[in-house]
Amino acid sequence: MLAEDVTAVADGGGTxxxxxxxxxxxxxxxxxxxxxxxxxxxxxxxxxxxxNGTVAAAxxxxxxxxxxxxxxxxNGRITNIHILxxxxxxxxxxxxxxxxxxxxxxxxx
Length: 109
What we know:
- With about 110 residues, the protein is of the alpha+beta class.
- About 25% of the residues lie in helices and about 45% in strands.
- It has 2 helices and 6 strands.
């Protein structure tokens, strides 16, 4: 699924465990995502949503939004991964996603 030259960039706002520099290469990105998500194996849920007109994945742990992942896809491979894990920004996004999930409108409408 990952392009060989995939890059993951995270906005963690100083959150421990979130890469401060871009992670490059399929093997390194896969390892990074595995390590980050392995902390929440039990209880982690993922929902598909829309962020700025693009399909994204929101990761939830005990009803708390942990992060939002927005992939860029080209030629059937993920070429870039944008990760939002900044607690201040996640509070706003979590509120918006919760509000939208309780309405009849699809995410991002």
